[in-house]
Design goal:
It comes from Acidovorax soli. One of its GO terms (cellular component) is membrane. This is Pimeloyl-ACP methyl ester carboxylesterase. The chain is α/β, with parallel strands linked by helices and 270 residues long. The chain has a single domain, classed as 3-Layer(aba) Sandwich (Rossmann fold), CATH 3.40.50. The protein has 9 helices and 8 strands. Strands 1-2-4-3-5-6-7-8 form an 8-stranded mixed beta sheet, sandwiched between helices. Strand 7, helix 7 and strand 8 form a beta-alpha-beta unit. The longest helix is centred in the middle third of the chain and has 17 residues. It starts with 9 loop residues before the first strand and ends with a helix.
Length: 270
Amino acid sequence: MTAQASSPSTEFASIEWRGRTVRVEHQWIAPERRDAPLLVFLHEGLGSVAMWKDFPERLCAAAGVRGLVFSRPAYGRSTPRAADETWDVDFMHRQAHEVLPAFFEALGIAEAPWLLGHSDGGSIALLYAARFPDAVRGLVLMAPHIFVEDVTIANIEIARDAYRSTDLPAKLGRYHDDADSAFWGWNRIWLHPPFRQWNIEAEIAAIRAPVLAIQGVGDEYGTLEQIRGIARRVPGTALLELPACGHSPHRDRPDAVIAAATDFITAQRA
């Protein structure tokens, strides 16, 4: 009989952020691969540990790496937003410059990991790599944002209406202890008028790590100018534009994403 790997167990780390102690839900994948690179997964604007499902385990197995999956504060089983907490235009910068370093320190991570980010998580990965260029081994990005587009705002407005009028809160409640915390933190800042000027194109030029940027041709939350703009700013960026794919390549085209990410990570290890 072949032994089957056990599912990752959920743990919590505590960090100090925004004047209070915040616990961060996380899971380790294949920690026994001590000599393998570490790949950290950064979820989308409504994501969490649970919402990744089995994608992180599949990718880590294919690439032969260790994995770390976590829910940002306000998401999943991490500490929800405080009742009076609102996010400003710099909310992704604060995640990249404050939360992620504090989280790594709490876990005793001293090595330079790979970062895999989806949507807002991809933008946070870019901002972290730009601020700490020597602390990142490489980036795999899926549908990241580097500026705000009309199509993004239009579909976030649709999501707001759906949250108010459908069973979307109950659906998100499967993945978050406090669905309102997750949804309104994300939705309100993206629809905040000053956020239309958010743009990180100039900042990402400081990135020195290798980058693979993936986007669906049918992405409903952004055009292909998002990843093409990264390629113009970060020399050597590899692009993968996937047909028959929307905003979530790891759900719409998981096999293609796993193959491309595995090849990219393996090539950098050679």
